[in-house]
Amino acid sequence: MSATAARPRLPASKRRAAILDAAVELFSSKGFRGVTTRALAASVGVTEPVLYQHFASKHALYEAILEMKAMEAPFEVERELERFTEAGDSQAFFTLLATLILNWYCEDPRYARLLMYSALEGHELSDLFYERHVAIFYGWVTRHIESQVRRGKMRRTPPLLAARAFAGMVAHQGLIYAIYHPGDLAASRKQVVKTVVDLYLQGIMK
Amino acid sequence: MSATAARPRLPASKRRAAILDAAVELFSSKGFRGVTTRALAASVGVTEPVLYQHFASKHALYEAILEMKAMEAPFEVERELERFTEAGDSQAFFTLLATLILNWYCEDPRYARLLMYSALEGHELSDLFYERHVAIFYGWVTRHIESQVRRGKMRRTPPLLAARAFAGMVAHQGLIYAIYHPGDLAASRKQVVKTVVDLYLQGIMK
DNA sequence: CCTTTAAGTTAGCGTCTGCTATATTAGCGG
DNA sequence: CCGCTAATATAGCAGACGCTAACTTAAAGG
Questions:
Q1: Closest alpha carbon to B113 in B18, B35, B13
Q2: Which CATH architecture has domain A72-202?
Q3: B206, A30: Cβ pair inside 8 Å?
Q4: Which of A153, A52, A176, A12 is nearest to B171 (CA)?
Q5: From CA A194, how far away is CA A176, in angstroms rounded?
Q6: Structural domain boundaries of chain B?
Q7: Burial of B108 by CB count in 10 Å (0-12 exposed, 13-18 middle, 19+ buried)?
Q8: Which of B120, B147, B194 best probes binding to A when mutated, by most A CB atoms within 10 angstroms?
Q9: What's phi and psi for A33, nearest 5 deg?
Q10: pLDDT tens for residues B5-21?
Q11: I want to staple A118 with a disulfide (CB 3.0 to 4.6 A). Which of A110, A126, B187, B190 is the partner?
Q12: Is the CB of B33 under 7 A from strand C?
């Protein structure tokens, strides 16, 4: 009687990964409330109960994504950045940071959108991302600026404000790319980094 | 039998305005899909059919907000900006622009959130805002930069990229304020404008 | 005071949503 | 080849959703 399509039975871990991947795709384009569990299941190629075998609820599934991304630590570069600060090499410092940020947007703009959604929708784990990435980023930059000011190599500027200004210069390019998509950021990435860092370091005026 | 609370009967125009105001509040905090017509009606203090007397659908109501905001032309300042460009006064030019942007975020951060939502959710009228504000902004700045480069007063820099960098420096501060809300932007607005414009114009290095 | 108009309500339709109790079957260890 | 486990499907509940037909009543004009 049943003409069931004989779906391939994946081991739990693979199925879970497949669900997460499809979820990122959908949540990033429609937001948490814009995605139904039915649509998600269909996109994975299974039925709804399968989702609930791997995640307690729609919310838990969403939080699994956020946590996964928030915990992706960028701490490998921390030591390198500190070396640049100690060496007083602002050029290298800001170039690395800008490259990091733009790469993050380019590699998977879906996460940029998803995190933007989560921040707007006020999900708790969104704060986690802020603490573990944005705030830490500001910390790195302010420390670098303060260090350079002490050495007399940089003009005295409110450090947090200046850090945000740099973050804005870079992230805005990525944001426009992830949301409005005019032009291919990936291709021009290197030029963007070069121009923005140059602008930030030396100023636009002759 | 009926214990109806004898609601005040507003003239259509006032009721319509009240609905729009409550709608901005709700849509900006929960997004289009996060707001139900029931919740909106309750927030206005009426019942659902009243909403449908003023707007054909939930979508039409939302688009009325977007159109209202997109059409709010900033063209009053256009002539002033052009004068600054002609006079070669970059200081005044960028100060006015930065003030404009930050004021926009401060006056009503709800719209910043609402427009962010609409961009993510891909509403058609979101493009209208991009065209009528973001793209026009880029146009002003690129023209100013090109003009200054021709006069030899500014370093040769990819104009659109430089325009976006400036937009990012300023808007990022507003965005952080509208979304994560750490600190009071309104109070420090003037210092932010001063610092950012100074940074952009003269560069951070001594 | 009576008529007319429109601002407002009640009640509920059809559909979709998150989620689940229950049944079924693929595939591995023995 | 069997039996067990875990991966999957069917069917559907209870509530929420966008929206509407039909009724009620406040209030302005003659």
A1: B35
A2: Orthogonal Bundle (1.10)
A3: no
A4: A176
A5: 18
A6: 12-62, 72-202
A7: middle
A8: B120
A9: -75, -15
A10: 446 788 888 999 999 99
A11: A126
A12: no
